[in-house]
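Bench notes, bay 3.
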Amino acid sequence: MENKHKSLGWGKISDNGAEIWDDNPIFLRDRVDYKDWLKLMFYPKKFFLYKWIKKHKAKLRRDFIREPFRVLDVGCGTGAAVIDLKKMFGRQAEIVGIDVVRLQIELAEKKITANAVWAQVGCYDGKRIDWPDGYFDAIYTSDVLGHVANVPAWLAELSRVLRTGGALAMFAESALGRHAYLRRYLLARGLNIDPHSEFHISLYSKAKLRELVEDAGFGVKKMFSAFWLSFLVHPDEFYEKLQGQKKFFSLRLLNKILYKLKRKLHPYSTAAAELYGLVEMLTLGRWLEAQGYVILGRKK
């Protein structure tokens, strides 16, 4: 069943001041096949996160697997990843999504129904996850850690509900790394390009992120940074804040040209930019320290 729902978009602010994170699922058909996995190449963060959980389930099947396979999406937004994960792992899998914003959960419930899958979503307080110790086989969480006030306690709670050996598939926002040359240049001159800066309260370096995750009881297997050349491939991320400046004439001019060119050539330009992101992660991602990291790990 194809989903006709139009996304509200990323980073929209609701009437009560909460930031709404909305997207549509990648997998639109009832069954996930090789065409869907090829499509996933244009979603580089999810490519690594989804593949890590899929690989983990395959490992459990070789060793010992209990049924059903259980996955928790922490900070599920309006349910796109919940739907994708349900379609990936089938009817027998137990997929649960939780979020602190009630409006997002209400939208997720509607989206799940529209996509003809069964999955459970619900609100939580951002601190206590209402599931027993070691209940889940895998945890998926993306673009959440930077919004958490007490990161060590939050990570410890994720560790508590994950079984020993369970998979952690996370994308975490971060402080600007040493290779984020242009963003650091602008920040040093008073311009923060982060489009969600008012909501990001916990941003750490790559080394500190690894330390926090490991202190919570996870072994970090891989960390990837993405979109080092974001100024070139994602000029829309810079556009609103940069074009509102009177200084940085050369950068503003180049950004405007790239922004209009990308819009004119959309969707081909967007697809090319995302595919570049995947290639960059596969080749340079382990060594780059830019902004934001895919973290793949397992509970010790």
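Next record in the batch:
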Amino acid sequence: MPIHDQSYRRYGGGKTMPGQAWTVIARAGIMNMIRKRIFLAVLLGGWIPFVGHAIWLYVNARYPQVSIVTVTPKTFRDFFSWQDFFVFVVTVYVGAGLIANDRRANALQIYLSKPLARSEYIFGKAAVLLAFLLSITLVPALLLLVLQVLFSGSFEFIRHNLFLIPAIVTASLLQSLLATFTMLALSSLSKSARFVAIMYAGTIFFTLAIFGVLAAITGGTRLSWVALGANLQQVTDVIFREPPRYTTPWQLSLVVILGLIAVSISVLERRVRGVEVVT
């Protein structure tokens, strides 16, 4: 029987740059969702407002005598309002099980036993949801701006509203980051994706209901900061240089949004561990 030499040999494989492990998690998560036909239908549904706005832009540019309302920065602000429902659906469908499913299968121990930092794991999971949310907010909004230029045949609209480019980017990132980290934090608290989806929906609608009751009692909208969606609407109005719809200072709404993101990151830092700590 031959005896093979098992002495030390140099590693002949390739080397992976440190800090790139999150891309494997992100790529696997994105591909897993794309394989689902139901989700693809939901994602395509998120582009319906884009098609409607694109047709309107074409008619407004080619047949101005027919169009009743002209294109203004408010047009792009209203587009984000149309996308709120689809952002909610995609967030629930994609994000509810991102961490909850791993906790149910005890996969966190496997993930974090590898040369993988917690930050890389969290960032990889966040990238999955963030990619899909930006695909129905940032991408179509920028395409609408491009179509406006193409249909009108000039850069006049862009020159007069140059702030729209950073406004679209900022509004998209703010909305997507808030939804992403809020959902991931809730997903890290449970092993049931369905329960996480219920918690997220409850957070959105319950805070909105509380705001509605407070508005009816006080006769004003100064307490809109208690509602998650109202804070986002308030700040988005300011980003697009539109009059805020509530009397709450927009700075307070921004602080609430950033605070929620910070709290969500703190929850993730505590909950994403290789070993379950019981206190």
